[in-house]
Amino acid sequence: MTNPSAIIRTGIGGWTFEPWRGAFYPADLPKAKELDYAVSHLGTIEINGTYYRTQSPATFAKWRAAAPAGFVYAVKALRYAVMKKKLAEAEESVTRFLNSGLTELGETLGPILWQFMETRRFDPDDIATFLAMLPDRLDGVALRHVLEVRHESFACPEFVALARKHGAGIVVAEHPSHPQIADLTADFVYARLMQSREEIPTGYDDAALDRWAAIARQWAGGERPEGLSYVTDAAADGRKRDVFAYFISAAKVRNPAAAMALAGRVENYL
What we know:
Blueprint: E1 8-13, H1 34-41, E2 44-47, H2 49-52, H3 57-66, E3 72-76, H4 91-98, E4 109-115, H5 124-133, E5 137-138, E6 141-142, E7 145-148, H6 157-166, E8 169-170, E9 172-174, E10 188-193, H7 206-220, E11 242-247, H8 255-266
Parallel strand pairs: 1-2, 1-11, 2-3, 3-4, 4-7, 7-8, 9-10, 10-11
Antiparallel strand pairs: 5-6
């Protein structure tokens, strides 16, 4: 699917974290207003609560109502759906998660993140079976899927080819021990940046933020950024892509500032 325009969104994981009070949220902000504040200052949020327990349709509808125009949530898939010894056995859990009310998010529904355990190794048949379980539409709503793989065995051309065949994204991770696979396999790009530092008010210094801003612009413009780790040597295809960049874990208290600083560097891209 060709994207005639592309949007770069930056954000964080979740919106409930006590140290953000005073650092991101005003100290006197009522806790019930934290989501409203977060969605008004960020372009996207990766929802974490969906990873730990099944949510209700009413909850998804409430999150949708809180979002301003153009805001998009990424949704972290329920962990029980990806913790099976064999993913081929996960179809019932996957179906239950997808039908839990997810589509109540409507136009605010962004990519669905399927996060694999660090111990999961690449098994081509099992991954192919799992990818075939993931629908591209549900209740009339388009679904986008992205896989976060955290074992080096996935850094192989066969995995990239499988993801590309199914139109699934691969998380571009900036992490000290997780593999980075920057090969583009979907019509969007999903980055998880996990090296923020507490001694830097914006989490990342100016040089690092400038670098990621340049990379995000290149992704959005259909280019293949240099300086990242690729499995294949496929050339840039020129397809414009939406970009989702999340500052996750590490010095978590700094991640909202990092997301806003990166947004300031790319906001005039389109």
